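Worked Example 4.2. Consider the chain below.
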Amino acid sequence: MNLEHRVQHLELQYESLDGTVQKILVFTKATHDILMAHIADTREEFKKVHKRLDGVERDVAVLKTDVDVLKTDVDVLKTDVAEL
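Applying the procedure from the previous section yields the following structure tokens:
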């Protein structure tokens, strides 16, 4: 195998490898873009869930207060009934 033939062979291998690397780069960028979009969507969903959870926690706090008031009213009622 003469030098010119080996150089041509290496150039063909380089072009093939370069093409493959370019395809990998395109695929990697597309995958990255998909992942970034998914991450953004997930962040938005988490924000919505946290907002709903905050609302539920506030509602539970209000209900606990209402239950405490009812317990106090029941205790007063029990005292009133016991005095009869």
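Residues 22 and 36 are 21 Å apart (CA to CA). DSSP finds one helix and no strands in the chain. Compare this with Example 4.1 before moving on.
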